[in-house]
Design a protein that fits this description.
The two termini are 46 Å apart. α9 crosses α11, α9 crosses α12 and α11 packs across α12. This protein has 389 residues and is of the alpha/beta class. It has 16 helices and seven strands. Helices cover 47% and strands 9% of the residues. Pfam families: GmrSD_N. It comes from Nocardia aurantiaca. This is DUF262 domain-containing protein.
Length: 389
């Protein structure tokens, strides 16, 4: 993503990735609050061992489910044919690959932290999913899939040794996250949600996937977040779940940053001892209710800035999604429908004239004061509209 120039808070700026609009409004950070608050590492907590694996061993681990290639993480698998072929050529030429990083969990499972594109490419090639093209040296192998290679070349690829730095399970999650940020080397740097996805477990990933695939979410967001290239769809859902599950909004202050809250929520979801299956089911039901109600009230303008006097359809605003989604989840549709016109009118007035509210949905959105403002404004608008019936 390329940084956009600073703009006034009432100016909507859409995020762009590799020259393409993403359908999501940029959240500008004016201060340091919204950044991850780090504490110094205790060196005794960091456990990283270095191991050597053959590619055959690693490929078997992938096939057996002992090594995870970050399911649903699509952006790291968009190498062009030339990049894929040149990687395979390097292996056939016995050129050593840069080191990989794996994270090991307490059950002995491994997850790729750095090197996902390279391992995905090798795995795809051995499975016969592409043939070699645009090689630099091995012209005789052009057009060949793995099974077309002569036996010595197949053995050479299988026997290639790779160096893997393994982040051991005793390393705290917070330290693992920061290690990931430091060693991530592949192309465009990963954002916080992409790192969180790669480091989390199947329970939270499955819940977020279920939420973003829900018809009500796709309807409320007009499908613009479908399979989002920067995982902003999953981040938006996680933000909803994080704030919905807070017993009191004041508790947000204790997390020091939005990213810390999202990390903690992910860890809770991944631990059935903290969040039961029944609780997850109730969270999902609330999410569906919030999304459906937002669509009912705001129609095509749900979760978009829609100030009075303008009918421009802006990009999705994550601060609006999290706050209005949570507030509307507390109501039944039949309660809201009669108050729809008043809710819309007051929300549009706030987006046009309430400078504090405009700031709260535009920049430094992780600041506790701005979090409280956007939730309180949405809650007051709905309560007053329903009470006035």
């Amino acid at each position: 993503m390329h940084a956009a120039p600073q703009a006034p808070e009432d100016t909507v700026v859409e995020e762009v990735f590799y020259g393409e609009p993403t359908g999501v409004e940029i959240e500008r950070e004016e201060d340091e609050f919204g950044q991850r608050v780090s504490t110094p590492w205790d060196p005794d907590q960091i456990r990283i061992s270095t191991r050597t694996f053959s590619l055959r061993n690693v490929l078997d681990m992938i096939d057996d489910g002992d090594l995870e290639l970050a399911p649903d993480f699509q952006r790291n698998r968009v190498w062009k044919g030339r990049q894929k072929s040149r990687l395979i050529e390097s292996l056939l030429l016995q050129i050593p690959l840069p080191a990989f990083y794996f994270a090991e969990d307490r059950g002995g499972m491994f997850r790729v932290v750095d090197g996902l594109q390279r391992l995905s490419t090798v795995h795809e090639y051995v499975q016969g999913r592409f043939a070699l093209d645009d090689l630099e040296y091995l012209d005789a192998e052009l057009g060949k899939g793995f099974r077309d290679l002569d036996a010595p070349l197949r053995r050479r690829l299988h026997n290639a040794q790779i160096v893997v730095h393994v982040i051991e399970p005793s390393t705290p999650n917070r330290v693992k996250y920061d290690i990931f940020k430091r060693i991530n080397t592949g192309g465009e740097p990963l954002n916080a949600m992409e790192i969180r996805h790669c480091m989390s477990s199947a329970r939270s990933r499955d819940l977020l996937k279920r939420c973003v695939s829900a018809d009500v979410f796709q309807a409320a967001t007009a499908g613009v977040l479908r399979d989002h290239v920067r995982m902003n769809d999953r981040e938006a859902v996680l933000r909803f779940l994080a704030f919905y599950s807070l017993p009191d909004l004041q508790e947000y202050d204790a997390y020091s940053s939005l990213e810390n809250l999202l990390d903690a929520t992910t860890e809770r979801i991944d631990d059935p001892r903290q969040v039961s299956d029944e609780q997850l089911a109730s969270w999902y039901a609330a999410f569906e209710r919030g999304m459906a109600n937002a669509r009912i009230i705001f129609g095509d303008y749900a979760f978009r800035r829609w100030p009075a006097g303008s009918n421009r359809r802006s990009p999705i605003n994550r601060a609006l999604l999290e706050s209005w989604g949570v507030v509307l989840a507390a109501y039944r549709p039949e309660t809201l429908v009669p108050a729809r016109e008043r809710i819309v009118a007051e929300a549009r007035k706030a987006m046009a004239k309430n400078s504090d509210y405009i700031a709260a949905i535009s920049s430094s959105t992780a600041d506790p004061k701005r979090v409280r403002i956007r939730f309180e404004v949405a809650r007051r608008i709905v309560e007053d509209a329903v009470a006035g019936l």
